[in-house]
Amino acid sequence: MILAQVMGNVVSTTKLSVLRGMKILIVQPLDGDTKAKGQSFLAFDTVQAGAGDVVLVMDEGNSSRMILDEPQAPIRTVVVGIVDDIER
Amino acid sequence: MILAQVMGNVVSTTKLSVLRGMKILIVQPLDGDTKAKGQSFLAFDTVQAGAGDVVLVMDEGNSSRMILDEPQAPIRTVVVGIVDDIER
Amino acid sequence: MILAQVMGNVVSTTKLSVLRGMKILIVQPLDGDTKAKGQSFLAFDTVQAGAGDVVLVMDEGNSSRMILDEPQAPIRTVVVGIVDDIER
Amino acid sequence: MILAQVMGNVVSTTKLSVLRGMKILIVQPLDGDTKAKGQSFLAFDTVQAGAGDVVLVMDEGNSSRMILDEPQAPIRTVVVGIVDDIER
Amino acid sequence: MILAQVMGNVVSTTKLSVLRGMKILIVQPLDGDTKAKGQSFLAFDTVQAGAGDVVLVMDEGNSSRMILDEPQAPIRTVVVGIVDDIER
Q1: Angle value at C-alpha D34, between D33 and D40, nearest 5 degrees
Q2: Of chain B's two ends, which shows fewer C-beta atoms within 10 Å, N or C?
Q3: Which residues have C-beta within 8 Å of that of residue A86, sequence separation ≥ 6?
């Protein structure tokens, strides 16, 4: 999993039917100091995250399909939690 | 999945028979501001995307094989949607 | 596996129920000279590692699920050892 | 898959018996303009590619094992086609 | 697979029991000209490689478990050969 911040979401009308109804977020990876680092990517939302939220992103297909209880869905990356605090 | 822009396509006459008839696109990853970032790569087309289109790219083998309903095909990366808009 | 140093941990109240009770560490990858290099990421703890510890991190889902004996858990990255010494 | 150019090949006498007889190429990734970009890596040859050829490289284990019809072979990366032209 | 050079090895007393007795090498990736490039990582040894050796590293879990004949071991990255020569 990585730390990331939600930047917005993507609207796509031609995507596969199995993906319809799912919210696709654009997320920016963060380093341990919550500074942006690395390339943004897309993730499905499971926790009603909104723009600006710092979130936990799972980036493995098998794990993501387990989380969504969709063993056959073509899904790799999912937002699985909203971060309340970072302790160090 | 990531956001990417279609740059063109590759012509290869010696590729594996299982891959014949599939259109192989060159796609350039984009960041959340739709600026090019990172290294271009190849993806199979499923949505009749053309050069210049901003697209959703699935980059996991199991997911891609599910999308194409080809559980045995040697395919990892597939264009699965054309992006109409980005909300932030 | 990679070498990494523990930087702290993340507190998230809305994460998936299957992940509750697990400690999520922020880890910074190190090169062979134990200097920070590359982007930090998150890993589940299995060895009671604390901030500052140099650790071994397993970053493959199948391996991580085997380590935790949780074949169905959505887990990809796990701290599996604390490093005592590096020989060269 | 990615675009890459063949740079040469590796000779290794102590490699695993299952890998004997296979030609291991050094390939350099290319961007969409066929300029070198990113780090070179190793790939098994399936199309008699030679130094200087621009090739299609499959970089997923399950796909590569399907291509070689070797479901049990420890193989991840395979050259699967020689590129004749790039259209844009 | 990638080309890499062995830099040393890691000593860890708290690692998982299934990993005890295995030698964990620190390896530095090399480009096609055998210059260091990219971030070092850890790999299990199968060929009695020592510091300074240029080696072939397999970096996929399923392949690595096949090589070690340990279908259940939490292992992703293995040194599988020592390089004698590079032809170009």
Answers
A1: 135
A2: C
A3: A32, A34, C8, C9, C10, C11, C26
User: Is the pLDDT at A49 greater than 80, yes or no?
Assistant: yes
Residue, of A20 and D49, whose pLDDT is higher: D49
Confidence bin at E52 (pLDDT 50/70/90) = very high
DSSP assignment of chain B = -EEEEEEEEEE-SSS-GGGTT--EEEEEEB-TTS-B-S--EEEEESS---TT-EEEEE--HHHHHHHHT-TTS----EEEEE--EEE-
Quick: pLDDT tens for D18-55.
677 788 999 999 987 888 988 888 998 988 899 999 99
Closest CA to E15 of B82, B40, D77, C58: C58
Please answer yes or no on whether B88 and A14 come within 8 Å at the CB atom. no
Query: Are the Cβ atoms of E61 and C66 closer than 8 angstroms?
Result: no
Among all residues of chain B, which has the CA nearest to that of D71? B72
User: Which are the contacts of B69, defined by CB distance < 8 A and separation ≥ 6?
Assistant: none
What is the CB neighbour count within 10 angstroms for residue E3?
Answer: 26
Q: Do residue C39 and residue A58 have CB atoms under 8 angstroms apart? A: no
**What's the pTM value of the predicted model, to 2 decimals?**
0.73
Q: How large is the ipTM?
A: 0.72
Sorted by where each starts, the structural domains of chain B and their CATH numbers stand as 2-82 (2.40.50.220)
Work out the average pLDDT over A53-75.
75
